[in-house]
Structures are given as structure tokens and as C-alpha cells.
Write a structure and sequence with these properties.
The complex is a heterodimer of chains A (113) and B (117). Chain A is 0% helix and 56% strand. Chain A is mostly beta strands and 113 residues long. In chain A, the strands form two sheets. In chain A, strands 2, 4, 5, 9, 10 and 11 form a six-stranded mixed sheet that branches. A five-stranded antiparallel sheet of chain A has the order 1-3-8-7-6, with no helix packed on it. The termini of chain A are far apart. In chain A, 40% of the residues are buried. In chain B, strand 4 and strand 5 form a beta hairpin. With 117 residues, chain B is mostly beta strands. Classes of the chains: A mainly beta (113), B mainly beta (117). Chains A and B meet through strand 4, strand 5 and strand 10 of A and strand 4, strand 5 and strand 10 of B.
């Protein structure tokens, strides 16, 4: 069962433009959402998170938007840089970040110079 | 910046052998986790550990698996009798414990690639 879905396996964006990565979830008990970035042969690196009491969280070039009614979140990266090229995972948990994370399959972002 | 470390980076073993994967979580963290990612699939939760006991485990975490915190710094995952399908990347993660209602972030190690032949 896919409780967390990332429907786009890959995305290509020109350097300097906005990258938008999308994630949908089905479990209404999820209330904490995270984005991780992963390079080959490395572990997931935490990028940004959002609690269900908010609809937006911003950290530098990264902004996460949460639409609870649509069970949808998105990660915006602006401006995109070649170093952002990686696989991005959406993850969610119930109650707090200390409960098991449920991951999406990931979206491979390629930022073209 | 503190980070989660894992050893070895790559472990090759014969089917039926026991393996122990090692992790050193971030020093002031209190929750510890193991996840795995089979090639081409999602990252999947295996087990979480808090206050010297398992707090949650998934269906994957059967009797062949065990976890231990043998001292104040290491956190280990043991697979008693490895199967071919145990071949995967195994990630350790840790998080601080927040107060009630406070959400914490899980920080991941670089992973151990386990290959069962």
C-alpha cells in the first residue's frame, strides 16, 4: 500500500529556475512531513519539515507547502542549482517525528546548467 | 556538525550466516531506528528503539532480526541467518526526544550495503 506517493519519478529543470516536487498521502493520521535529499551511496539528508498545524515552511531556497484538505505537499527550490541534482524523498509520520517514517519512492531531480 | 555513522560501508556474506551492522547515533539523541532500502524500492522502516527497548517494529522485523545498544554509543542490528532477500542498504537513524507534541527530525547515517550470496 502506497501511503505516500511521489508520482513523478524524475524532473529536469534549468539552473536558476524553480523546481517543484510533489507528494500525495492517503493516511489522514499523518501530521508531520519531511523532505530528504539523497545522493548515490549516501544516506538521506534532512532538508526541511512541516507540521500539520502549518501550511508553509521556508528555509533559504527551500519552501514546503502543505494542503491538508487535498493531502498534498510540495517542495519548491528556487533558484535551482546544479548541486541540487539528487533524489528527493517525501516522508510522513503520525503524532510526531519520533514515530516511524513512511517514505515515497522518490523523485530524481536533474538541474541542468 | 554531529552525524550518524555506520560500519561497515559494505558487507558481503553467505546465505545463512549471521551479520551485525553497527551504528553510532548522534550523541544526545534518544530515539534510534533501522530502515532498509532494497534496490529500486522505497526506504522501509524496520524498528525503533528507545530507553533500551524496542518501541515499534514492522512486519519485516521478524525473529531473524534483533537490535541492541551494547554500550552508551553503539546501536547494532543483527540478522541471525541471512537470506538472499535481505540484500539491501540498511540505514540507521536517530532523533532527539522532544516534549509532548513536539515533532523531531530523524537524521540518517550513510548506510551499510549488505550483499547476501
Amino acid at each position: 500500500d502506497q501511503q505516500v506517493k511521489q508520482n513523478s519519478p524524475s524532473l529536469s529543470v534549468q539552473e536558476g529556475r524553480i523546481s517543484i516536487l510533489n507528494c500525495d498521502y492517503t493516511n489522514s493520521m499523518f501530521d508531520y512531513f519531511l523532505w530528504y535529499k539523497k545522493y548515490p551511496a549516501e544516506g538521506p539528508t534532512f532538508l526541511i519539515s512541516i507540521s500539520s498545524i502549518k501550511d508553509k515552511n521556508e528555509d533559504g531556497r527551500f519552501t514546503v507547502f502543505l494542503n491538508k484538505s487535498a493531502k498534498h505537499l510540495s517542495l519548491h527550490i528556487v533558484p535551482s542549482q546544479p548541486g541540487d541534482s539528487a533524489v528527493y524523498f517525501c516522508a510522513a509520520s503520525e503524532d510526531s517525528g519520533n514515530t516511524p517514517l513512511v517514505f515515497g519512492k522518490g523523485t530524481r531531480l536533474s538541474v541542468i546548467a | 556538525e554531529p552525524e550518524v555513522t555506520q560500519t561497515p560501508s559494505h558487507q558481503v556474506t553467505q546465505m545463512g550466516q549471521e551479520v551485525i551492522l553497527r551504528c553510532v547515533p548522534i550523541s544526545n539523541h534518544l530515539y534510534f531506528y533501522w530502515y532498509r532500502q532494497i534496490l529500486g524500492q522505497k526506504v522501509e522502516f524496520l524498528v525503533s528503539f528507545y530507553n533500551n527497548e524496542i518501541s515499534e517494529k514492522s512486519e519485516i522485523f521478524d525473529d531473524q532480526f534483533s537490535v541492541e545498544r551494547p554500550d552508551g554509543s553503539n546501536f547494532t542490528l543483527k540478522i541471525r541467518s541471512t537470506k538472499l532477500e535481505d540484500s539491501a542498504m540498511y540505514f540507521c537513524a536517530s532523533s532527539p526526544r522532544g516534549q509532548f507534541g513536539y515533532s523531531d527530525t530523524q537524521y540518517f547515517g550513510p548506510g551499510t550495503r549488505l550483499t547476501v550470496l
